[in-house]
Structure formats: structure tokens, C-alpha cells
Amino acid sequence: MTQHSKSRQQAESAFSKVQSQFLARNRAIEEVDTMVKAREDKTSRLRTARLAKEADDRAQATASPVAKRDIKT
Question: Is residue 38, in this structure, part of any structural domain at all?
Fold first, then answer.
């Protein structure tokens, strides 16, 4: 094993620290991006289901005749 100067060892240590912080930051960003994507997908599915239900409800409301009430005078 070769011996490096003290300044090189310090530089390598500092670089390793910066690199590990960078990698940890990237992992955190990827996790957030994954959560955002999952939330957007779920929102889209729920919106589609809600719109389909509303359209079905409207179709049923227009298809069934409305019972007229007798008005007493």
C-alpha cells in the first residue's frame, strides 16, 4: 500500500464527504420524484373515475322521467 501525503489524504477525505452528500441528495430527490409521480397517477385515476361517475349519474338523471307532484289549489 502506498503512502500518500497528508494533504492528499485530507483532499481525498473532503472529496469523499462531498461525493457522499451529493449521492444522498440525489437519492432524496429521486424519492420525492417517485412520491410526486405516484400522487399524480392516483389523482389522475381518481379524476377519471369521478368524471365517469358524474357522467353516469347525469345519464341516469336524464333517462328517468321526473315524477310530477300534484299541486293542490
Answer: yes
* Nearest-angstrom CA–CA distance, 73 and 5: 107
State which residues form the domain around 36: 27-58
Lookup: cell for 3 = 503512502
Domain presence at residue 37? yes
| pTM of the full structure | 0.58
Residue 41 within any structural domain of the chain: yes
pLDDT reported for residue 3 = 78
Q: Tally the domains of the chain.
A: 1
As a whole number of angstroms, the distance between CA 32 and CA 38 comes to: 10
Which pLDDT tens digit goes with each residue over 7-66?
A: 999 999 999 999 999 999 999 999 999 999 999 999 999 999 999 999 999 999 888 765
What residues have CB less than 8 Å from 12, skipping those under 6 apart? 4
